[in-house]
């Protein structure tokens, strides 16, 4: 099977209410009232884009605004505004327009929020550990998702 580049583009003027989960890259320039999760590829919040919820991805680039927590399992580049806690595993780059309001923490890759797995897959985690590892918005109707490993 041939590897194909798959990227979703949400342009300015588009408003989505609810959590958005993709299994590939995304470039978001609109307004999202909910969380944004990309399980692989680049998660880009473009200039003028606004996310009112948590952002989670492998490689995260923020040129717009995020009002929520940011979790990057790989690289993180911020040249916009983040109001929330930031956890990252790899490298971080702050641009000249970066504005942060929250805590910044580098963690081991295993401590970042990964796609949810069944409890039987991680029996050593207590309910408290799972709750701490996977914070979610109270009004969200998305509680967990899993990705099949190929």
TrEMBL record:
Q: Segment Disordered: which positions? A: 115-150
Superkingdom, natural source: Bacteria
- Which InterPro entries would you find in this protein's record? BacA/B
Where is composition skewed (Polar residues) in this entry?
Answer: 115-125
| Family annotation (Pfam families) | Bactofilin (PF04519)
Sequence ranges of Low complexity compositional bias: 126-135
What PANTHER family does its record include?
Answer: HYPOTHETICAL CYTOSOLIC PROTEIN, POLYMER-FORMING CYTOSKELETAL PROTEIN
Similarity comment? Belongs to the bactofilin family.
**What protein is this chain from?**
Polymer-forming protein
Q: Which organism is it from?
A: Paraburkholderia tuberum
């Amino acid at each position: 099977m041939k590897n194909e580049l798959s990227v979703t583009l949400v342009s300015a003027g588009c408003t989505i209410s609810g959590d958005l989960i993709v299994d590939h890259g995304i470039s978001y320039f609109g307004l999202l009232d909910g969380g944004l999760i990309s399980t692989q590829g680049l998660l880009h919040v473009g200039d003028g884009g606004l996310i009112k919820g948590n952002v989670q991805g492998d490689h995260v680039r923020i040129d717009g605004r995020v009002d929520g927590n940011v979790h990057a399992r790989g690289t993180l580049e911020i040249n916009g505004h983040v109001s929330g806690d930031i956890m990252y595993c790899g490298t971080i780059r702050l641009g000249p327009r970066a504005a942060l309001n929250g805590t910044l923490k580098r963690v081991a890759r295993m401590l970042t929020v990964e796609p949810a797995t069944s409890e039987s897959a991680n029996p050593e985690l207590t309910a408290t550990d799972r709750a701490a590892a996977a914070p979610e918005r109270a009004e969200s109707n998305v509680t967990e998702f899993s990705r099949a490993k190929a």
